[in-house]
């Protein structure tokens, strides 16, 4: 994969994460509170172990 494609994917992921965080912090009815809590915990965890999810 080229560096440009990887950079584009990174930007897309950063925007997606920012959108989810904004929705969670605004208590949006579009997202389940439990899902928001799990997402924010994963986001703040320095060493997430996704295999345990």
From TrEMBL:
Domain of life the protein comes from: Eukaryota
Protein name, UniProt field: Uncharacterized protein
């Amino acid at each position: 994969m080229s560096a440009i494609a990887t950079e584009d994917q990174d930007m897309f992921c950063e925007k997606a994460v920012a959108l989810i965080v904004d929705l969670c912090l605004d208590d949006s009815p579009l997202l389940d509170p439990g899902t928001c809590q799990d997402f924010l915990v994963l986001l703040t965890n320095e060493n997430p172990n996704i295999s345990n999810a």
